[in-house]
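Consider this one:
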Amino acid sequence: MARGDRMSRIRRAILAEWWGGEEPKHPDSGVHRPAEYLAAILKSAGAAEGVDEERLRELWREIAGDLVARHTSPDSLKNGCLTLKVLQPAMRFQLEQMKGKLLANLRDSLGEGKVKSIRFSLG
């Protein structure tokens, strides 16, 4: 047995006796960092798609046109479902008729899989 190993063992034994047990753990040893859970939290919240809200608002004006964009605004994007706030029931009816075209334009601009459906809410 090497002298260094023997001294290290003796040192640990003396410290354990002095502390009344094993060496105490570092105070941060049981603490978890937010980064460990961030991806799972974003996925469960439906935000893992990674669409920037500001970019979505800019694209919406381009996709929908000025008239429609003045009466609507993107409210949320969760699990691929884009919710749009619509100011008037007549505009909502019009948008329901245009839903397929709007969805195709969103897919072209954002890529496949980001927006799977569109929902309209009055507000």
Remarks:
- The chain has five helices and three strands.
- Helices lie at 3-19, 35-44, 53-64, 66-71, 89-110.
- The CA atoms of residues 35 and 41 lie 10 Å apart.
